[in-house]
Amino acid sequence: MLKIEKHRLVGDKVTHRDTPNVGGALAPRFLVFHYTAGRSAASSVESLCTRKPSGNASAHIVLGRDGAIVQLAPFNVVTWHAGQSQWNGLVGLNQYSIGIEMDNAGPMNRVGTNFVAWFGKTYPENEVMLAEHKNGGGVRGWHAYTEAQIERALELAQLLAEEYGLQDIVGHDDIAPGRKQDPGPAFPLGSIRTRSLGRDHDTAPRYEVTASSLNIRKGPDASFEPVAPALKKGTVVMLLEQGNRWSKVEVDGPTDIEGWVNNAFIQKLPDAAPRGLVAPKTAPKRAPASRAAPKKPAAETRSRRK
Ligand SMILES: [Zn+2]
Is 101 a residue of the active site? Predict the structure, then answer.
C-alpha cells in the first residue's frame, strides 16, 4: 500500500532521490503521464537528476517496469516535465501538475520480426503493441507497458487524485498534442482516468450499440482481434477514450470487457441522473473539445461499412 506523508510517497518499492531540477511551490491540479523513451528506469532517473547545458528536465516520479518508484521531488514543488503545453485554458502545465515518467522505449520501427527503438535497442514482438496514436500517424509499434507498471500507475493516480483533489489525469500527448506522443496508445490512460476520478459508471458518457452485432477489438482498427464475443444491439457501453473513427469503451454490467468499437455503430444515450454517490473533491470540469462525443458518421460511411 502506498501513502503520502508530507508530499512524499511511503510504501513498498519506493525510494527517493532529489533532483536539482525544480521550480517553486506547486498546488497540483492535474496529473500528467509520460513515457521516458529511454533504455532503463535507472538511466532516466540519472538524466532527470542532472543539470544540462541544453536544458533541464525532471518529473516527480519515475515508474520502473517492475513497478518500483523513484520519487525525485515532493508533490508540492514544481518539476519540469510538461514543456510548452495547455489544458483547460491553462498554459504551461508544469505550474499545475504532477508528472510521472514511466520507463518505456516509446515508438518502434519494425526490423524483420523484431522492433527497434530510436536509441537502437531491439525488442521482441511480444513486448510491442501495434496501434495508431489517437492524434494520428498510422499504425506502428509501441513498447508495451508491463502489468506491474500499469497497476502501480493506477494506484498512484487514485492516491494522488484523492490526496490533492485532482481535476484531471492526462497524457503529455493531450497537453502538447502536436509535439508529444507519450504515453501513447499502449497505455490505458482512459480507464486509469475514469477509475481514479470517480466519474466512471455514474458520469462517463453512455452509448448504445445500434448495429445488430458489433465487434469490440483490441485496438482502434478492424485489423485488431476482438476481445470478446460481438456486442448485441442495445448493449450499453461507457466511453473511456474517444478517437476520430474508433472509441475505447467499457461494457456496462458485471463484466470487465474493455475494447475499441467503430463510432459509426454506437449512439449516445441521454446523461444518466446522478445516483448520489461520493462526488470527487473537486467538481469535474466540462470536458474539453478533444474529448467531445464522437461525431455522427457520414451517411456513405454508414452504408459502406454495414
Ligand atoms: Zn512527456
Answer: yes
